[in-house]
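Deliverable D5.2: sample structural annotation.
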Amino acid sequence: MNELNHTLNSIIQYRKRLDAIATDLEKKVFEDGKLLRDVEDQIKQMDIIEKELDIKEAMLLALNGRETLLGNKIEHDLNFYNDPSVLDSWNISFFAQRNGTFNIKTVIHPFDIVPLNQGQCFSPSSGVFTVPFHGIYHFYFAALKMKKQESGTGRVTIQLVKNRKIVPTLRKVLAEVHLDSAEGLSTRSEDCYKVLFYQMEHPLIDVALLYR
């Protein structure tokens, strides 16, 4: 009987030890799982930081590229404005005006008043300005129609046209304005049209007044 009780007590103690070991294992597994999740969260956070760093690096490269382009542009502009031919082109200017009717369709009308033609690059008879130097040119033009058309729309179109050749096969309209006095005694265009034109070659600029 005593041996049986001793064996039973040994089994009970062994069982308690096994339960304690199992509890310790479960606790260890839980702690290891928590540690693993923490590591995974840190890895995800590092991935996010890495992506943010990649984005910032790309932005920095883009800014450096823009800085380089801006520096090149500044250098180009300084060289451009120090170019003697550009300085000479600053002395080129003209002002032309025409007063009268436009009763011929799709024909360039000559200008009858030319108070300014510095450099003699503008032809009043043809309305063509020949660019003498590469550079930046500013063109301003305006139009005013005073009387109502008796019949039809009375539409007048004013164009600033660029020609690459004397024969206008490659024409490009730089600016255009329309006047239509069919609905009133007088119709006025916008007060002034401004065109900024930059050209390295010597093209032709038609200041054309067309009746359509």
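Annotation notes: The helical segments are 2-81, 84-89. DSSP finds two helices and eleven strands in the chain.
The annotation will be released with the project's public dataset once the embargo ends.
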